[in-house]
Amino acid sequence: MNQSSFKQWSSALLKVWTREFVLVFSDIGVLLFFILLPTIYPLIYTLIYNPEVVHDIPVAVVDNCRSTNSRQFVRMADATEAIHIVGYAASISEAREWKNEKACYGVLLIPHDFDRNLNTHQQATIEFYCDMSLLIRYRAFVSSLTSLSLAYGAQVRHQQYSLPSSTPVNSHAVFTGNPSEGFASFLIPGILILIIQQSLILGISMLGGGRAERRKINGNSDPLTIIAPSSASILGKALCYTVIYIPLVLYMLLFIPTIFNLPRSTNIIDIILMSLPLLLSSSFMGLSVQKLSSERESSMLVIVFTSVIFIFLSGLTWPRYAMSPIWYGISSLIPATWGIEAFVNINSMGANLNLTATPYLMLWGLTLAYYTLAIVIETHNKKSAKAISSVNKH
């Protein structure tokens, strides 16, 4: 490319960049996804999971054993951090009614043979039923009951066999990335990255739907389109979205963790550098798939649905190393997957870009790949539109 061609290309890129700004800020629907959604959603999600650790969750007891051992187990359960015994129910049916009335969120059922099994050195079983409408309660129940069963088992061994009740080796866990062991510290950093990607793709898809509608009205021609090479057109649009999102990224990745006292990094430079390939790759990905949006509203159905899939593929709910090769490969094609890993390393684990080089380089790799794909699709669309126009003229 000679100097004259480069000037023309740069001029076209600038025109596309300026026109895209006008299109974004004149479209209320796009502003809803580009501005309002990234502003409100982080607050809503963080408020849901804040406070991070729940205490004294109401639990009903159905004691069919009514022995000294069963009463001791209930007292120990009531002494745990998460469980608060609100009363004894006569039967599991009555306890279920309490749960339906929200008088309790869990039911501890002690079978009639609990005491006999303990005294005959057999394994005793206790059943627990809980409301899983909020996973933060379920996690607290599981953690408390696991610790309770270990402590009660050690006490029984000490009484029956005169063995020391303490364990031979004490363990102490130090959680560097999630010191409070809370859901907000665990989930919110990943959710923030996913919100950035999905809101960006939603807005881009809605812009693509608007272009498709204008082409239908104007005989397969969009009067608001700037004539430019595909490479300049794609890059100009992506740079427009990136500039708009940089203040939102700072708000989401720095301000939100600060006001909710979540693990956070003060290294603004690394977060900005990490965000650039995330925004660019997400923009190019959105520009690659926006052709699927034949109408403005259709983008919402597709992109919102994929948000649930992307959460699972990101490794937040299931570790990526345990995925099958097919799902691992698909997850590697999603910018948010690598963005979440990079941001968690920087924000929660105190790493810098050198220590999180793999996800950072993968983001730049996806940026280049989706940029190339978007150019190919844009070029193909232009040729198709030109061919249709020629046929219509004849």
SSE map:
Layout lengths: L2 H23 L2 H21 L8 E7 L4 H11 L4 E6 L3 H9 L5 E5 L3 H6 L7 E4 L4 H27 L21 H35 L12 H30 L8 H22 L8 H16 L11 H8 L2 H13 L9 H37 L1
Parallel strand pairs: 1-2, 1-3
Antiparallel strand pairs: 3-4
Would you mind describing this structure in some detail?
The structure is a single chain. The protein is mainly alpha-helical and 394 residues long. The protein folds into two domains: 3-49 and 182-393, no CATH class; 57-161, abc type-2 transporter like fold (3-Layer(aba) Sandwich), CATH 3.40.1710. The chain has 13 helices and four strands. The protein has helices spanning 3-25, 28-48, 68-78, 92-100, 114-119, 135-161, 183-217, 230-259, 268-289, 298-313, 325-332, 335-347, 357-393, and strands at 57-63, 83-88, 106-110, 127-130. The longest helix has 37 residues, at 357-393. It is elongated, with a radius of gyration of 28 Å. The two termini are 36 Å apart.
Give the number of domains: 2
The description of the largest β-sheet is: 4 strands, mixed
* Helical residues, percent: 55-70%
The global form is: elongated
Low-confidence stretches: 165-171
Strand order of the largest sheet: 2-1-3-4
- Let me know the average pLDDT: 84
Structural category is mainly alpha
Calculate the terminal CA-CA distance, rounded to whole Å: 36 Å
